[in-house]
Write a structure and sequence with these properties.
mainly alpha; single chain; de novo design (two linked rop proteins)
Length: 112
Amino acid sequence: MEIVRRVYRLTRTFPREEAFGLSSQLQRASVSIPANIAEGHTRGTTREFVRYVVVAHGSLAELETLLAVAEDLRYVDAATIGGLTELCDTTGRMLGGLRRKLASKIATQRKR
């Protein structure tokens, strides 16, 4: 959720003509991360949860790419997004760990 808050604060500084372009894409990608985790958690099976965690991880990668585009277009500088980039890295490691843990749970269930 912190990623979502930071992205929304960041996109408020973008040029007005980007409201329906890059700003919107950044916002949608950021919201998709916690939304997919929540949806996957409620699906009822570990396998479904893993699938949604993978989708959330993909949205995170999309967000990181869009941040690089924003920097390349000079809408934001590296110093401004540094903390957000670090948070994305940390979140990526957490999602990878969650995926591995859930996959291990599935493997254990199969052995029974």
